[in-house]
Write a structure and sequence with these properties.
The complex is a heterodimer. By secondary structure, chain A is mainly alpha-helical. Chain A is built from 4 helices and 2 strands, in the order ββαααα. In chain A, strand 1 and strand 2 form a beta hairpin. Chain A is globular, with a radius of gyration of 12 Å. Classes of the chains: A mainly alpha, B mainly alpha. Bound molecules: FE2/S2 (inorganic) cluster.
């Protein structure tokens, strides 16, 4: 599906950004454009970031940050 | 008549779900049409216009309760890359709209606002008709498989309807 309608960016394209290491919504925007216009898709991008944890990817910086954040919770 | 703030908020939450449905289904209808799935296009188009009509009494009710109808807020539009995925996004959308109407009815009853409760319940029954249609599509899809199902969406089932 298209997560970002303004910039015409699909869910799989955003997932690729996250897999490549984008760890915040702003970094996703920088990498693929999603979230850079009206902003109404930013919550959904954040949800995708939250769901992406060490089990999806064990080498990107994002996974390690999420793991240490949940360890301190 | 001054309404309870929670009732006005619930009416505005319903309105948000309605405005979202109007736009999502209008887009879905035009995309289905562009791809040649005329039966799906027709169903989405009719529902979009229907919900626009349903939004009218909700807006009127907010004004009657001396609130300000929020036509600014709209939830995320579910835009799929393909027709099958669109049907599941539309199902989620319709479930959300029904949930908002149920909540509106509950909130209104809790504050003894029977007029609003009646409005919500009347609309809920109508929205459940489209919900049932969407659920039936999922069953047809499971029975026929994607290819056969989509082949059956190319022509309108009832051009007069
Ligand atoms: S939908 Fe992504 S910026 Fe508008």
């Amino acid at each position: 599906m298209y997560v970002c309608i303004c910039r015409v960016v699909t869910q799989s394209r955003i997932r690729a950004s996250i897999d490549a290491g984008a760890s915040t919504v702003d970094e996703v925007t920088l990498e693929c454009g999603a979230g850079g216009d009206c902003g109404s898709c930013r919550d959904e991008i954040q949800t995708m970031l939250d769901k992406h944890d060490a089990s999806d990817c064990d080498h990107c910086p994002r996974a390690h940050r999420a793991a240490s954040a949940s360890a301190t919770r | 008549m001054k309404g309870h703030k929670q009732v006005v908020d619930a009416l505005n939450a319903t309105l948000t779900a309605q405005l979202t449905a109007i736009n999502q289904l209008f887009l879905a209808a035009k995309v289905h049409e562009h791809r040649g799935f005329l039966r799906l296009a027709r169903a989405a188009y009719k529902q979009s216009i229907h919900v626009m009509r349903e939004a009218e009494p909700v807006i009127a009710r907010v004004l009657f309760l001396e609130g300000l109808p929020n036509l600014q807020r709209i939830a995320k539009i579910g835009a799929a890359e393909g027709p099958i995925e669109q049907l599941s996004l539309d199902l989620a959308l319709q479930q959300e709209l029904c949930a908002k109407l149920e909540e509106l009815a509950r909130t209104a009853l809790a504050h003894n606002d029977h007029g609003t409760a009646e409005l919500a319940e009347g609309q809920l029954a109508k929205e459940q008709v489209f919900l049932q249609w969407l659920e039936a599509q999922q069953r047809e899809l499971a029975t026929l498989g994607q290819d056969l199902y989509l082949a059956a969406q190319v022509h309108e089932a009832n051009p007069a309807g």
